[in-house]
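Sequence and structure are kept together here, with a separate record for every protein. A complete record is shown below as an example:
=====
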Amino acid sequence: MAVTRADREVELQQLETAFKNTETAVLIDYKGINVPQVTELRRQLRTAKASYKVVKNTLARRALKGTALAPLEQHFVGTTAVAYTSGDPVAMAKTLTTFVKTVPTMAIKAAIVSGRAIKPAEVAELAALPGRPELLAKLLFVLQAPMVQIVSVLSDVPRDLMSVLVQAEKKRAEG
């Protein structure tokens, strides 16, 4: 069945909408991957709140115009798929790098993370970072530490005063 112009227009609109709503995308050369592997990759990316789409290069280039992903335009050559997310880029990078290790014919071409173009090797570095929940927990701990220390110091004063009063009372009882 031939793809009509109307079908291409619908696909272009879907791509434009997807690209406008995301600031993080990774281009993948999916050569040598079979259907069960693609299905597994999509399932894993869904758990990381990301999407995966095999795209036609010309449609993707047209959809990129005016978005934060525009610097990726030159990388739409050959077999290309796009993994994108508006959520946690670290979770998506971890999923992709783990999957690429299991399928050696697959390769990461380029990426944009929060509007900044990065090299394929930097995607692996991004995957090595702790996830968003862990980073937020560390930030909370750092922000909470001074308050805990202040409360500790302030509670020490009445406790020490009470200790001095108990000691004075013992001395008075003995004398």
Summary: The chain has a mean pLDDT of 85. The chain is about 60% helix and 15% strand. Strands lie at 24-29, 51-54, 81-85, 107-113, 116-118. The helical segments are 5-20, 35-47, 57-64, 89-102, 120-128, 132-174.
